[in-house]
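Example (one chain per record):
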Amino acid sequence: MLENILTGVTHVFSIELLILIIIGTMGGIIIGALPGFSPTMGVALLVPFTFNMSSVEGLATLAAVYSGAVYGGSISAILLNIPGAPANIATIFDGYPMAVKGEGNKALLTSVISSFHGGTISAVALILIAPVLAIFALKFGPPEKFWVAIFGLVLIASMGTSKELLKGLISGAFGIWLGIIGISPITGESRFTFGNIDLQGGISLVPALVGLFAFSQALIYLEKLIRQNKTNLVQVTNEKGLFFKVYKEIVTKFAGLTVFSGSLGSFIGAIPGAGGQVGGIIAYDQAKRFSRDKKQFGKGAMAGVIAPEAANNGTVGGAIVPMLTLGIPGSPTAAVLLGGLLIHGLWPGPDLFTTNAETTYTFMFAFLLAQFALLVCGVLGAGYFTHVLRVPEYFLGPGVIALCIFGAFAVSNNYFDIYVMLILGIIGYFALKIGIPPAPAVLGLILGPIAESNLMLGMRIGSAQGDILQYFFTRPIAAVLVLLVVGAIVSTLLLELKRHNQEKMIAKQSTNLYKGITSMDAIVGLTVFVTCILTYFMYINKLQMETGIYASYVFLFVALLGLVLFFVGWRFTSDKIQWVPWLRVGEVTLVTLASIILGQYLGFYTSTFLLMSYLSARMISISGAAIKPNITKIIGFSAGITLFMYIAFGMFLSLPTPRGLFI
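Predicted structure:
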């Protein structure tokens, strides 16, 4: 093994390979920073570019893109409150508040340093203990995978308090329902498709992510223009020597958290199906649980950026471990990377570490080197990333909407995905208005199908063995996971009980308590309860047993949550619905819908240019400024963004957009 390691070190420092790693890392950062463009998409799009490369060069480039894209998603999460990829969902919780406080550069540097540390930890694990981790991951059968998914879903409970806890769970259940739509993986029967062929394949994650986070955020920009007449939401300050100060602070104050999160991410990444999104959420939750100052989380805590970013980049190396040794990719992106491995004539398994040891160890050290390239590119680019904040909302909003359309379409070149994005964007916006967060919905969409498939498969195996409960609860690893789930539930309930008592004391001193049957939370809870009960009896109850059993559990559980929310809003306290500019929201929605439809006739880029021009003019007008003096800026910005999209998506990424009368 030592000889192979030395061989890998020797070969990794070739000039050609170093250049490819740097290019791949920079390209990955750009792809990851674009809302809707996931690491999986970036790696998949660049696989054809590696055909003429050697196996080491091709794999190293793809791995660099993978690492860069996972970090790149934190840029839009921090600067725009939009996670560039599912792995960066948890980063928005404290990354964006740091930017709002004027610590945008610090947040970006914290992210890239943490990503570097997490990626380095996973790279070392990949080199030294790949066979051990792969063997351990192989022991995860259906019960273990089911309990991992349940553990992730239980963590939704930590995203809110009191009423918000209930709303977070309802949001998560909504995401699970989105994951149920389509063909049942067990019986092949359609669920919630209602004869629509486009729904047969289910709801794709990227359009859902773009809609819930990005399109809804563009509407928030519009709303703030109307209410505040401000164009700069986040102030970013540059400070000389900031990198060294941040690095020193992370090493001296958060070294334990960094190592823990990176190691946790490496472990979770090696579990097939988990991925960076699960690693980031779990690491954030654990950092919050064990922090001495929990109240700072969600308000711009450095630990809230360090934990998810170290973990999600840690999952990159972890996901590659079972891919190389067992042919089992730990994430969708690793699955695409596995395709690149096979294209170059390499088969996963013991032969990679014996017959093809030179290629394998060179690739693994190239992955380690990519982490240093990530650090350099991220630090040098941090000062430029913040320039996006200087773009006024009346330009940024339309630009984000255009990116939403392109990002949703690029997943599978399917126009239907754009409509899914738009619908979920509207739902996400109004959900925010009644206090329902979008993050749990995305987590439910990710983990719901994992939980269902492994639950049903485990039930079949357990039934064949004669005892389903024993199969799910007595296997050693499954038993440990069950204890973790129970521990998470108990600790959350204890925290909620403490918070409830505190709120009760505050309520006694308040003379303006909003509650009652007509309160917002009571109405929302009753609506959820009635909808779930009617859906169960009128639709789910008529499905085949194996097709509908998981959906039955979900809808009955959500009905119970709705009933509890109704009771809390009626008897205790309720949130008030936030102000909504109905006419403006309706106008933006209808104009966006018209642009999507016209794109099939006028051309995608032409309709995008017209959309951005119109929305920019309308937002300038809404903000109180005159349109005429800004016409040149409007046309110039719209043309510039359209040209950028044409170069990036049409030429560089070869996205086959619809062409009409124009382009």
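Caption: Residues 229-233 have pLDDT under 50 and may be disordered.
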